[in-house]
Amino acid sequence: MATATKKPDYIVSPGAILDEILEERGIPKQAFAERCGRSPKFVSEVIAGKAPVTEETALQFGRVLNMEPQVWVNLESNYRLRLAEQEEERRFARQVAWAKAFPVKDMVQHGLLDKPGSPAETVRNILAFFRCASVESFNEMVAARQGAVAYRRSPSFVGHPQAVMAWLQWGERIAEGMDCRTYDPVKFRACLKEARRLTMSGPEEIQSTLGQICADAGVALVLAPELAGTKLSGAARWVGDRPLLQLSLRHKSDDHFWFTFFHEAGHILLHGKKGMFIDEDKAAADDPKEAEANEFAASSLIPKHVWKSFAVRRRFDEGSIRKFSEECGIAPGIVVGRLQHERILPFNTRLNCLKQRFEWSN
Is the whole-model pTM more than 0.70? Predict the structure, then answer.
């Protein structure tokens, strides 16, 4: 992130500079006022910083003092800007409690925020990250997103809206720099078939290939680690005319990663451009769109009829799972995860050794 330049604590007004110039040149204030065609009171107010130097005044000062009028325009503009910055600094200092609701430590660690030099600077940095001018405008943005059904149903968004918003904003900022083609749903469905074959690959190949095949179909795939307080596995939404699929690698296992990927892909393909979906461990069981995305993910990874013929066995070992996964063309860890999800295998089974553990490089 960009580092702000340290500004001096003091502010020099155009009037203070005018006062110095008049004193250096030995020009009485009343005589100067007469030459400018202004009242002595007006000149005194400019010197005291009470009256602004307008464009007309800048022309008069420039002509009488043999200076470029633009000098006075710039001095006035910089002075007013510094006054506004000081007022903003005082306002931010009163809003530090608002900033404490964000996972600032995590955001600094991931390079989303500069390390703040003061509590007020923390407020400023957070607003800059979200590209919001004020805390009020940020709160309006949060309120607008809370109106979406997917957000209302999210325990994380209800409990930690600032952390969730930070994670989503992180994804959108990453996506801005991605080179994606125009979205094509037919190409994206074809991309998912190729993605399914990637389940047999290692993390390095997955990371280098999956994002590219999604981009070729017009989908921005973003991998962003979870931030403290989020507990999110993934999210799917449209940003402008581009679908964004964001994954956190929350549980760092291949079965969870791939199910989440296909789940979010289902939202993009099935649920239109207006929906915003954030998914976590405790998804809303009564949400038909979530159920539809779950079914899409499950059948995309293992066709329903294929799964039924396998799951009825009820006795599974490493050999049978590896054989089935090879026949299906998917990673064995996905099969183990599906068996656990359907309560056929316990979550502490020794067959967890078939799952791949994922760690993404930066």
Answer: yes
